[in-house]
Amino acid sequence: MIAGLRGLVRRIEAASVVLSVGPVDVRLAMPTPALSAMQPGQEVEVRTYLYVREDQLALYGFTSQAELEIFEHLLSVSGIGPKGALGVLSTLTPGEIRSAIAQNDARTLTRAPGVGARAAARIVTDLLGKLDAVVSEDGPAGIAPGPQATVLEALINMGYAPQEARRAVEASATTGTAELILREALARLAERQT
Hints:
alpha+beta; 5-stranded antiparallel beta sheet; 9 helices; 5 strands
């Protein structure tokens, strides 16, 4: 319904931001790291998730597609609501969450507020195999942090399958700017589709 918003930051609250979108001010609950990077008066673009329940209507905002996807996956876990999912994303990066799930590391997830051992174990069990752990905080596995890791994450956020994106990045220039590597990787991906 509402896939994203672009507007000016009116004010930042404890767990949300108020964006001025045309003549309307919209409140979005967001992960803490995203909120701390915003300034009043700044123009921002966010991806959104509209949460609708019988007694609740709330809009959640994310600065990356990866955050939004993790949020949606977390909501699919029994017993994890939007507040818990937002708490996980406020404590851990999408890469750390993917890595913890892939490594069956429920303990890392318990660092998030309101996520106990049982909930963390349920998250790992339910999402194991559903999230690809290619991107981590230190860069994709097998690719050193730097322009190649940046391009790989960008391709994944653009919707390319992680394995497909990795092959394209690895076959591209190993040196140069992220823009050059991205251009080459996109050309290789286009060749494969024809």
